[in-house]
Each structure stands twice: as structure tokens, then as C-alpha cells.
Write a structure and sequence with these properties.
By secondary structure, the chain is an all-beta fold. 2% of the residues lie in helices and 41% in strands. The strands form 5 sheets. Strands 7, 8, 9, 12, 13, 14 and 17 form a 7-stranded antiparallel beta sheet that branches. A 5-stranded antiparallel beta sheet has the order 3-4-6-11-10, with no helix packed on it. Strands 1-2 form a two-stranded antiparallel ribbon.
Amino acid sequence: MYFIKATLAEVRHQAKRTRTCHDAREIVIVPSTPAAPPLSLDEYPREYRPNSTATLKRRRWSRPIGRLNISAREPQAINVSTTAPRASTTVFIKLRFDPCTTCESEVRPYEWDCDVEYYVRSRTFYTVKLLDEIPSISMMEANEHVRMDSKFSKSEIRQCSSHSWRLDRLSRMGVIQSSDENSPWMTTLVVPINASKTLTPTFLNPLSARRYSLVLRLSIKGLYHSIMELEVPLQIVCDTLQHSTPTIAREADISVPLYFRGLHDLVSDDLAALAIDSETVSTPIEDDRLPPYTRN
């Protein structure tokens, strides 16, 4: 911890005593570092869950109406060097619903209301011997000199309603591309993520490391299903050179980062009807851009 201490002394020539008052304030000193490229999940098979699937039912003991698959990727890094009240980013959750053949006519995904609960998990690794690679849970279990401390932030809930769904057998112009009636429904949830500006940025040195992940839990009101939970990497950075203007995220302003090229269907014209409950957006959302990355 760092503190700035100020002392004020009143000195009088005729007085035998001097009166002083002082005060101290804690300050945070953080190196300015840009975001690193997205983390490769193949190197950490047990730490992240980019996909989750659950069977949907109207009631606990009723017949299934279909299966829902959700997926997400690493969002843009959260920059704690911001003028907004809280640091923020945006995560895209892709939904794919495959209805049962017998219940297809009864299913109306466009009437569903979803809740997304999220929190930030921090993992701090430390060791008494020098590290030669990024630490992981697998390394900790195999190396007796490596230990880990895990903590969680307070969870928050986003309410997503009136989002548009698209039948996979229909093109963007509404033309039928497949004769299969049991076609999946697809949509994308755009979820604002807020975090405290006091978080220590992601770091790595020979004796310790700090990594973060974002845990997302989706639930659909009025339907019974098992827990659908995702966990994706998350970077916390302090980049003072990255200029940002706090704004509220809107559908027309949503753009896909460079490393979302393979998911170009996440954000499309069919999201025009997407709406996020304004009551849950309590702080401005930044529309920062990732710095360009080059490959050697």
C-alpha cells in the first residue's frame, strides 16, 4: 500500500508551542500495460467452460421441450483506467435451442425472459521456485511448490427480455434454406459487465501471477432446467493510453472485436429487437477497442 501524508504546522514566534495537524490518504500505483492477446483455452482444459447444454422442461416432471446450448468467448479486456464510476466490458452469449419434434409447435423462444448472473473470479498463484510458464491448476497439482488462492467478486444479475430469435433454416432475408421442420432457434445475448476499479490488473512474474475469469450463469423464467454456467478468461488491465468515452451500450453501436471473426453471426441484423432491462444498467458501459495484434 502507498500513502500520501500531509502535515500542516502553525508556527508563532512568541508562542512556546506549535500546533500541527496532519492527514493521510491511500493511493494506488499501477503500471500501465495494454491488453494481451486472447488466452488459448486448449492450454487450460480444466479451468474454463466456454459451452454448456441443458434440457428444458415446462415443469420438473414434464416431458422435455428441447435442448439449449449456450456458449461465449473471452470478452474485451476491462480497463480500470477509466473516468467512468466502474470499469466495464461487454460479453456475447450465443444461444442455440433445438426443440423436440413432438413439441416444436408449442415452443416460442421469442417469449422467453432470461436472467444472466455473473461474477469475477480471481486466481493468484505463488511459488518459492521460479516459474518458466504461465501457472495453471494442473501445474499446481503436479508441482508441490506452487499454491493458489481463489476469490470471488459480488455477483450481479442482468435481465434480458424481448430478444429476437432466428430459425437456422431461414436466411437473413426470410428465405427457407432447409426443408427440415425441426430446425434450431438461434439468438445472441449482449450482456454488459461491470467490475470494480480497485481490481489488481492481470500480471505474471517469476514468483507469482494473477489471472481472472468471468463466470456466467443463465436461467430462463418459467422453465425448468439444470444449471447452465460458463466460465471464460477475462483480462483486467490498466492502459492509460487507451482513450475511452463512457457511453451506454446500444445495439447500433455493438461491434465485434477482431478475434470474433469466427463468430460473425453473433451480432447481426436480427438483433434489432434485442432489449436489456434499463433498470439493471446502473453504470455507463465503455465501448473500448482492443489494440491491434500482430503475429510473428
